[in-house]
Design a protein that fits this description.
Strand order of the largest sheet: 1-3-2
Structural class: mainly alpha
Largest sheet: 3 strands, mixed
Helix content: 40-55%
InterPro entries: Uncharacterised_BSP
Oligomer: single chain
Low-confidence stretches: none
Number of strands: 3
Distance between the termini: 27 Å
Radius of gyration: 15 Å
Strand content: 5-15%
Number of helices: 5
Length: about 140
């Protein structure tokens, strides 16, 4: 998790001073019996044991997938969501940035796992991903 934090702060957010970072001295990762993949609340990440188990049953690279999920969720730990005004940033923007961090770290899921069947990456999330890649390309 420290590698994810360093990557997020230096390679993506470019927050090089402690004053510009969210102030958490530790981050907790819990593996729970729950639906879904993972979620983050402040500095606590909950990862679904069911998801990890089902992922490994498919012969997939579990270590890589868990690392990708951790990078995504660690982004939420360190994201500013509205300057103390509550969660005012649009959900698609928040999730799009976290997905961008995962992709930028080289931890994209295998084909078919990124988008759930019958759904597509669209709207704010897709726009955010394209914008993030454009910013990096022109920086």
């Amino acid at each position: 998790m420290s590698n994810a934090t360093n990557f997020i702060w230096t390679s993506v957010f470019r927050e090089t001073t402690n004053g510009s970072r969210r102030d958490f001295s530790n981050v907790t990762l819990l593996v729970k019996d729950m639906d879904g993949v993972a979620y983050t609340s402040d500095n606590e990440i909950s990862l679904s044991a069911q998801y990890v188990g089902s992922y490994s049953d498919g012969g997939n690279d579990v270590r890589r997938e868990v690392a990708g999920v951790v990078y995504h969720e660690m982004t939420h730990v360190w994201q500013w969501l509205g300057g103390g005004q509550g969660d005012i940033a649009p959900g698609g923007l928040i999730e799009g940035i976290a997905d961008f961090v995962r992709l930028r770290a080289g931890l994209a899921p295998p084909p078919g796992r990124w988008v759930k069947p019958g759904r597509a990456i669209s709207g704010t999330k897709a726009t955010t991903l394209r914008l993030c890649f454009w910013i990096i390309a022109t920086d």
